[in-house]
């Protein structure tokens, strides 16, 4: 009896999978609407390595320490050593060893990527819940703890992209002609 039920279920699933696309084709027309500029702005939050897309705001290392302690410490540890989440400091000089430790100070090529990732995905349990000032602040704190910024630093849209990360020189642009794609930044659909 169990084998009969399994065969019947499998046949029903396969028939449904074959019929559903044909049945649904016409019924999807007219669904949805175009996004408003405001709705699109909520999704268009990416930050490019050159700083394009950075929002207004700023934060300090000291403010970032408070944000880190409240939002990040449980996963990344009191000293950024990792735990539930990865280590965020240390690993300098380890990339060529058998056990490389890829952290902000040892691996990341762009400070803007750090800001983008925190803004988009952290804290893990509540992504995109931090204000821009909180993200600038915690980014400043993390860069300070990786010996990239001084303790008195203020970080914002005007200076974040100018920070030279220690490992930037070990990344390169793939300029092979067969993989080169020009980035479209305006009127992309008309091209």
From TrEMBL:
UniProt entry tagged with the keyword NADP: no
Domain Cytochrome c residue range list: 59-146
Top-level taxon in the UniProt lineage: Bacteria
GO molecular function, one term: electron transfer activity
InterPro entries tied to this protein: Cyt_c-like_dom (IPR009056), Cyt_c-like_dom_sf (IPR036909), Cytochrome_c-type_DH (IPR051459)
Gene3D superfamilies, per database record: Cytochrome c-like domain
Keywords: Heme, Iron, Metal-binding
Iron recorded as keyword: yes
Pfam families named in the record: Cytochrome_CBB3 (PF13442)
Designated name of the protein: Cytochrome c domain-containing protein
